[in-house]
Amino acid sequence: MNKIPAVLYCTENYLSGSLNVINTLNLYHDDLEFYLYTLNFRYKSDIHNVKTVYIEDNRIENNIQFVGTKNDIGNTNVYKAVFFKSRVILDSLVNLNLNNVIYIDSDIIPTGNISYLYGFFNQITDYPLIQQGIFEYQMAFDRGNPFHKGGFDETNVLEYPLMMRHYMDFNNRTPYSVASIMLYNKNCKQFVMEYNWLNNLAFNMSREDIEFYYPFCDETTVNVLLWKYAYNKRLPLMQMNIDKFENVKEFYESNYDEEKELEPFIVVPSKTERKHKLFFHGVKGQLSNDTFDYQKNMFKTKIDYNENKYYITSNVNFNRDLTIMFCNKDEVFYDVTHYIEQGLEYWYSPSQTISEIKNLVIKIYDDGKLIFKL
Please, what are the domains in the chain? Predict the structure, then answer.
């Protein structure tokens, strides 16, 4: 089976986050292979489907730390490390010769199986696909809102300085997009080279100039380049921003008829849209560890071989129907849909004798999306 390449990179302080991304995806997938770039530090992974790639840049000091669960934006190296994304993506095309790739930021955690994303590979032409954003305009550093002074002031839009610096047509601007997930292929090489060139210009800037020209770092870069060429195809928004563990629990346990905004940028999807939110975004430091632990321990199980019963207890208060599939490796031999509540023990007695199944795999689906596999 041809596996789909997924590329990540990290500074040393982000290593555990990158590994959490990989380990979480391995809970739901056996069709991915990972290429983890380690920036200015060496690491050898013991995960079977991970290849580590050492890459260095002496312009970035290895002194980046978190402040709680946030990046230390007082350290200019944080900005420089983010700009390094384009070099990693370019290297994956030129030196690793990868094709049809998923790039994933290391402050991401999947919410379950991400196969829905695969259906967009055939929509890539000669530029990467990134996600639609939440808002048309981003706000930062007391700038960003064009609707002031009694009209529309394009000069107050965050991306305006960079677009004017490089003689781009502001009329090409479309709503802002987010670059935490990126799909790309070999045909995107020319775009990625320009993306990397434009990011590299920021390395010689002061932090004040970076904040003025690249307020959202490489995400500003990729947006303005997409606008430059009027490349307007986007992925749907597939992520939910979070900033605390309670957001994770609410994602799985809520059953809202309509989406619910908890605070700006943090929106819990409706029960019908939940399966299309493939990632949590903003998962840094201990929050990443807590989220991964929560996902891998969603259910407790035990087997009574004498009575041929398989017992499942949920640690999550789903309060909705989930589908439990019993598989012999990949072949389903028994499935049932059950209303699952937290703390209650459910038992299942499949038609085949459990003790005789050599490759027993239990898969649990929420509205058609795999959220647990054992």
Answer: 4-228 (3.90.550), 299-373 (2.60.40)
- In this structure, what are the phi and psi dihedrals at residue 38, rounded to the nearest 5 degrees? -110, 120
Segment 60-79, tens digit of pLDDT: 767 555 445 555 455 566 76
- 101-104 vs 4-10, strand pairing mode: parallel
At 341, is the pLDDT very low, low, confident or very high (cuts 50, 70, 90)? very high
Query: 120, 6 in Cβ contact below 8 A?
Result: no
* Cβ contact 178:219 at 8 Å: yes
DSSP per-residue letters across 105-119: -TTEEESS--GGGGG
Residue 246: which residues within 8 A CB-CB, separation 6 or more? none
Give me 226's structure tokens.
């997409």
Q: How far apart are the C-alpha atoms of 89 and 37, rounded to whole Å?
A: 10
**Beta-bridge partner residues of 39:** 55
Measured CA to CA, the distance from residue 130 to residue 179 in angstroms comes to 5
